[in-house]
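> forwarded from #structure-qc
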């Protein structure tokens, strides 16, 4: 009988015999992890101060694009840059990295620990989009899965339908000042590419977003032509941060999965259907949702897919 301990609290921490692994830690784990894995550069997946401390005593794996965003001055020690498709042997562990299809540089990991295969999806997207390569589901004994949209309330239309809706709204509103509000790292680059490459509508992006556009371009993503300005202008849609406020006369459209019932659910995350697709293809023995609708998705996996699942914060898995 093998026992794998999983702690889901401010990161995901795995223990097996004397080995431990930290995934996207937001707090320092007790003891010294054999390795720390950072899936991507969204701020809810890393903490600069935690990484600084961990880097004194453990190797930290991340993609080159993630490092470019979270450690641009390259001050962190013991960073191992890993690309999709690579396998590394670190402290006796075999770690494979794959595209997760979420934002630039985002990775999912498969780790062989003892004779168990553990998958950590990070935030992922299985759908083909105008930017990035989609993720492919990985097979594993234990799947630690992002369940941001792990409720059946969050089923999104096909990408091409969402794209068509955005373009038709812009055409209807071509005489207005229009702002497309999007998460600054992820959806903002997707909508920049959509407008610049599949329409003749000239697009403006605010400077806070342009700096992330440049990272996409530096790592080979094509976003097309766009201008940089912080001011909306009639006939030139502005891509701006979700948090920014505008005067009432400006027409704003929020692009986020949370707007599934009220607006345009353009998200870098997979929807509920994708989560089910991932688990089904992965054929795991145990599923642990690690963020979002953890309890709801866990119940669904147990009842509808007949697979063991848990949303507890501390889980001992006996396999
Ligand atoms: Zn994310």
């Amino acid at each position: 009988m093998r026992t794998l301990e999983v702690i889901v609290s401010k990161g995901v921490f795995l223990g097996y015999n004397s080995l431990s692994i930290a995934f996207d830690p937001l707090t320092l784990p007790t003891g010294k992890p054999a390795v720390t894995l950072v899936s991507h550069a969204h701020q809810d997946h890393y903490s600069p101060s935690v990484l600084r401390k961990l880097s004194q005593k453990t190797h930290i794996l991340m993609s080159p694009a993630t490092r470019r965003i979270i450690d641009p001055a390259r001050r962190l020690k013991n960073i191992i840059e890993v690309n999709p498709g690579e396998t590394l042997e670190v402290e006796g562990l075999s770690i494979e990295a794959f595209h997760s299809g979420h934002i630039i540089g985002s990775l999912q990991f498969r780790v062989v620990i003892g004779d168990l295969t553990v998958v950590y999806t990070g935030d992922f997207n299985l759908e083909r989009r105008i930017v990035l390569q989609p993720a492919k589901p990985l097979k594993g004994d234990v799947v630690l899965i992002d369940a941001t949209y792990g409720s059946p309330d969050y089923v999104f239309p096909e990408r091409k339908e969402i794209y068509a809706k955005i373009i038709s709204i812009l055409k209807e509103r071509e005489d207005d000042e229009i702002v497309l509000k999007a998460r600054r790292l992820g959806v903002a680059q997707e909508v920049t590419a959509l407008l610049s490459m599949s329409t003749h509508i000239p697009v403006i992006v605010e400077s806070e977003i342009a700096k992330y556009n440049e990272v996409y371009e530096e790592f080979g993503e094509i976003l097309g032509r766009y201008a940089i300005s912080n001011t909306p202008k009639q006939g030139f849609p502005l891509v701006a941060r979700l948090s920014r406020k505008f005067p009432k006369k400006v027409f704003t459209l929020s692009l986020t999965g949370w707007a599934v019932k009220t607006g345009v659910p353009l998200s870098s995350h997979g929807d509920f259907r994708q989560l089910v697709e991932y688990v089904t293809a992965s054929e795991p023995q145990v599923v642990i949702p690690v963020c979002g609708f953890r309890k709801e998705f866990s119940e669904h996996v147990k009842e509808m897919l007949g697979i063991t699942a848990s949303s507890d914060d501390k889980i001992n898995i006996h396999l």
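QC bot note: The chain has two domains: 3-153+269-318, 159-259. The mean pLDDT is 96.
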